[in-house]
Amino acid sequence: MLSLLGDHLLQRLQKQTEGALYHRVFCCLRDAITEGILPPKTRLPASRDLAHELKVSRNTILNAYEHLQAQGYIQAHTGRGSWVAENLPESYLTVPGHEHLAEQPNQQQLKHLSKRGTAFLESAAASPYQWGAFVPGAPDVTEFPHAEFGRILNRLSRQPEISRLIYSNDGGCLELKQALADYLRVARSVRCEADQILITEGIHQAVDLVSRSLCDAGDQVWIEDPGYWGARNILRINGLCINPVPVDHEGLIPDHTSSVPKLIFVTPSHQYPLGSHLSVSRRRQLLDLARYHGSWIIEDDYDSEFRFSGQPFPSLQGLEENTPVIYMGTFSKTIYPALRIGYMVIPKSLVESLKTVAAELYRGGHLLTQRALAEFIQEGHYAAHIRRMRILYGKRRAFLIELIERYLGTEFIHEFSHAAGLHLVLKLPEHSDDVAIARMALSRGVKVRPLSRYYSDATRSQAGLLLGFACVKEKDMLVAFSVLRQCLKEHQIAL
């Protein structure tokens, strides 16, 4: 049976047709090293074994190895074989035939995309920085009881049921849907049964499913302004016409003069990113408007578990019977983002249709992980973890607010901020360049995000910085905050 390297060399040798056989083997091995197929410090196969795989004489391989060693590509160690050198010759650091790849402008790479794809990339805002001070919305993944969850998962993995290893066309693991229905009825006052729940790979997939299933290209969608760029971009790439609606201290302000929306996207329990709470009167206005126009409200309940004072706000979906609301939640904030498990609570009239579309589009899976998560919830570990993290995050939030009030002043804390969520907004004076400040902070290792970038309508944008506190220990927060203060000083923010 061929090794991966043997298979690769045989394919390359078919293209190398000139020169002595040992030199052709040498060239193929050299290219494998310079292209990174054989990384530095990789052990090469024994000459006898590689000769057998390539069906050549051992002397051919030995000659090729000798040339590689002479030119500095490999090192031979007595009794330990031959290894790829840690430092390669500089003349071969560029992949042959690809010397000018890095010089091609981005526009050249974009020219093959569709207009929709190009527009999507131009508005893409996903950050490569997802951990550290002060990444917004990042939970402290080190505090999750990984051992307990792993114990459950390992037990289920030893003798998995066949039904856990094939595609799912029923909207996810039944046990998880039942556990979620029980949890949501108590924790969020959601009105639902297990068969109304559809498991997704997060909020993004849920928004994609709804926009594809319930809307046609050109349909109107209301979104909060400022609002979550991730949802905005998914709606845009699906061809929907986005109408940004301003928010105030009571949340989204319904616009009765605007065009009729097919979808209304809101974060009622903790408006993202400003932090206001959608008042009861506004909730009823939205429900009445949606019923009148036949619209659907998308309720993104992304981090409602983390409220540090006062009474928790119940879901919009559970305010009345048979609301035109599709409720969405995720485990990304309560467990960790890479778990990629979210959920939707779907009105009964849409359940079967959306489950069928989801099965056709996404081919549901991760059923073993979902089953383990169901047990984790049912055994009480999930609720205990949330209680513990609520205390921890509350302390970190209080510490950050103390730093802001002591060194900047209370006027730098945004007036919509409630004691909830995993980030807060640092309000900056009018006309401050929050994008430039965020860029400078990032260059010094502090990861904040500019508030102005969350606005669709630049005429009403505010300057500010989103500061995530959940994944930052107090001692690290103090250091990062000092760096941020220096960045503000250098941008002439009066402190």
Automatic annotation (TrEMBL):
InterPro entries: Aminotransferase_I/II_large (IPR004839), HTH_trans_reg/aminotransferase (IPR051446), PyrdxlP-dep_Trfase (IPR015424), PyrdxlP-dep_Trfase_major (IPR015421), Tscrpt_reg_HTH_GntR (IPR000524), WH-like_DNA-bd_sf (IPR036388), WH_DNA-bd_sf (IPR036390). GO terms for molecular function: DNA binding; DNA-binding transcription factor activity; pyridoxal phosphate binding; transaminase activity. The keyword DNA-binding applies. Pfam families: Aminotran_1_2 (PF00155), GntR (PF00392). Keywords: Aminotransferase, DNA-binding, Pyridoxal phosphate, Transcription, Transcription regulation, Transferase. In the C-terminal section; belongs to the class-I pyridoxal-phosphate-dependent aminotransferase family. This is PLP-dependent aminotransferase family protein.
